[in-house]
Fold this sequence. Notes:
Layout: E1 11-17, E2 27-33, E3 36-42, H1 55-58, H2 60-64, E4 74-76, E5 85-87, H3 90-107, E6 112-116, H4 129-137, E7 141-143, H5 149-156, E8 175-179, H6 183-186, H7 188-199, E9 203-207, H8 213-217, E10 220-222, H9 229-242, H10 248-254, E11 255-256, H11 258-265, H12 270-277, H13 281-296, E12 301-305, H14 315-329, E13 338-340, H15 351-355, E14 367-369, H16 373-376, E15 391-395, H17 399-402, H18 406-413, E16 419-424, E17 436-439, E18 448-450, E19 457-461, H19 474-485, H20 496-504, H21 510-516, E20 518-520, E21 540-541, H22 545-549, E22 573-576, H23 592-598, E23 602-605, H24 607-611, E24 620-625, E25 628-636, E26 644-647, E27 683-688
Parallel strand pairs: 6-15, 7-14, 8-9, 8-12, 9-10, 11-21, 12-13, 15-16, 16-17, 22-26, 23-25
Antiparallel strand pairs: 1-2, 2-3, 4-5, 4-17, 18-19, 19-20, 22-27, 23-26, 24-25, 24-27
Helix pairs in contact: 3-19, 5-14, 9-12, 9-13, 9-14, 12-13
This protein binds ligand MGD (2 copies) and molybdenum atom.
Residues 21, 147 line the site of molybdenum atom.
Amino acid sequence: MTTTTLPATDTVQILGACPHDCPDTCSLLTTVQGGVVIKVQGNPAHPHTAGSLCTKVSRYPERTYHPERLLYPLKRVGAKGSGQFERVSWDAALSDIAMRLRAIAARDPQAILPYSYAGTMGLVQGESMAARFFNKLGASQLERTICAAAGGEGLVHTLGGKVGMRVEFFAESKLILIWGSNSISSNLHFWRYASQAKHNGAKLICIDPRKTETADKCHEHIALLPGTDGALALALMHELIQNDWLDHDYLARYTLGCELLRERALIWPPERAAAVCGITPEQICALARDYGTCARNGQPAAIRLNYGMQRVHGGANAVRLIASLPALIGAWRTRAGGLLLSSSGAFPVQRAALQRPDLLAGRHPRSINMATIGDDLRRPSCPTFGPAIEALIVYNSNPVAIAPESAKVVQGFARDDLFTVVLEQFQTDTADYADYILPATTQLEHWDVHSAYGHTDALLNRPAIAPLGEAKPNAQIFRELAAHMGFAEPCFADSDEALCRQAYGDAVDFEVLLAQGFATLPTPEAPFAQGNFPTPSGKCEFFSARLAAQGHDGLPDHVPNHEAAHTSVAYPLALISPPARNFLNSSFVNVESLQATEGEPLLEMHQLDAAARGIADGAVVRVYNDRGTYQCRARLSVRARAGVVNGLGVWWRKLGLNGTNVNQLTSQKLTDLGHGPTFYDCLVQVALLDTHTSLSQKSAP
Ligand SMILES: Nc1nc2c(c(=O)[nH]1)N[C@H]1C(S)=C(S)[C@@H](COP(=O)(O)OP(=O)(O)OC[C@H]3O[C@@H](n4cnc5c(=O)[nH]c(N)nc54)[C@H](O)[C@@H]3O)O[C@H]1N2
Ligand SMILES: Nc1nc2c(c(=O)[nH]1)N[C@H]1C(S)=C(S)[C@@H](COP(=O)(O)OP(=O)(O)OC[C@H]3O[C@@H](n4cnc5c(=O)[nH]c(N)nc54)[C@H](O)[C@@H]3O)O[C@H]1N2
Ligand SMILES: [Mo]
């Protein structure tokens, strides 16, 4: 690391990047005094960050210097899950881990599984040295589906890639549909642009089962039932067609499958969709009128879609339908019209250089879906599955808390014959089950390079301080582990700074990144004004020949939830578990000031649903289904619509009343495309907790 020790009085400011899984990827300005971080701010020189940060990331010094930071390698001494460890040296830990992995790999390296996600979104501390390590080993590959797989597939098969409007142009839109996103909580810097548009007279409409703080600030809120967005989109199309609010010229030139889509939409009159969505036909007609007449009057209409609406069975089909809407009205013709779900496809990341798939040397290891880790950890060896998983290396993720159907995930992690290594900053629920915990640095202590999924600027993160204790960057840990394994390829010696340069190669000027911390990609202002969709046909594909060839419906359709509302007598309530504003998935849950703001695990309930169960505000309840029981406090709230309960996530299990969190209830069923999880497709029942039941009693699995 290149941090210099400064006299205690000297103050420097270092440019960095927020590493968290959030569309905003902010540019950070960190103030360091005498080698200690005293402040983390938003960089005022970065247009999207504009000098402001969310509350949680402005608490970065508190997180970094947290008394519970893991600072030394630890070896398990108690039972799995008991959280008892003793300090060991790096050399002892890495030697033993290398020995264990070598023994397993000698039988079949596919019995070793890496499990990682976006604890850091950094291209270097994410999948660079780690990917090289596992490729060389020939370990099982991880199918990284936990967040965006369904929506990503939907977008790719309609627009051709994870591409769309440039976020800054939302400021010029005249109508913005905020669809499946609580922007104020999870995409704050987009909300800044939406607020500018609102100030300039734009109408904002929020489409979300929950009355979020974003819904509060929009002109209208459509509180549809979870997983019914596809039906709503089809009815909107029905109205656009019936009222001839279509851009026929755009449709003829730049779309594929218009006639087929028309036929499908015409069987979805507003009354039919309203019954499915749990809203009124009038709401649908008004929304269609707003959307259909906007572009016609020369006013740009934009959709900010986010991943909240694709965590259900039909998530990918719903995204295909919604992503088709802008082409129907020709909204793409101007830079302030169209749609944005993800911008990540715009980044010229040199993945092969970073991850070195050539190290697989012709092998084709199996893939394990991270969304079904609960089942897969418990599977014995068999010809279809391959070898049972014998070793698990977890980094940048907290699967015991965030993966669905936790009871099974916990059973898997608790296996005595499973060898588990966890690279972490904190002793999470997952770290409790490790055989070895290896302490990882935070973003303030290492180098990295970032792409983004909510804007189109590449960022560089410089270390602001030296690593705390004996913590090491992920890339360094895998570099040293490779050395202990005897991997001799020169790529295992690349430094983190060298990896930073490899991430974009010549596609982004590294000198610009070094000088200002960010570099704006040269993306077109109105990418699809003249078609040019990155699909096989070059058009917006309402009909996808690729999907049809794979045996799927070539046209998008409404796909009902696996666990559709009101289909179960035993479990009549739909549960969604969207993010809590002051946490980032399960990160920040242990930061005291943020935990104090969130209070405790809560279930928001509509007063009718609560009254029917004799539940008063603040009562401790049991939320349950066949998969398990979760205990928390009920909050009677206008944020919940009737028939839907909101269990804000994702708390650490060990902080929950009965040692569980909301994922005790979610299922491992997958989405229609992309093999994604269905966190928001989940039926439950809620009951007042029997006062004789001890709060600390563990629930049955
Ligand atoms: N503060 C904070 N910010 C975050 C995160 C966090 O945990 N906390 N998580 C980050 C991550 S990992 C991601 S992927 C991004 C994206 O974040 P998203 O997962 O898109 O999260 P939200 O923006 O909260 O949007 C989810 C919204 O979708 C709503 N929703 C649930 N089901 C449905 C449905 O069926 N239809 C519709 N229309 N809406 C539905 C929820 O009520 C919620 O308000 O945000 C990131 N930003
Ligand atoms: N019920 C329910 N479950 C959900 C969701 C939901 O909405 N509802 N959201 C889902 C979504 S969208 C996502 S993306 C997933 C997210 O799931 P994960 O990607 O697992 O995200 P986190 O829970 O934030 O855990 C990330 C961990 O990485 C660690 N970490 C951070 N930086 C580093 C580093 O540099 N090195 C190492 N070694 N570790 C680091 C953090 O300390 C943290 O414990 O959760 C999913 N789970
Ligand atoms: Mo996510």
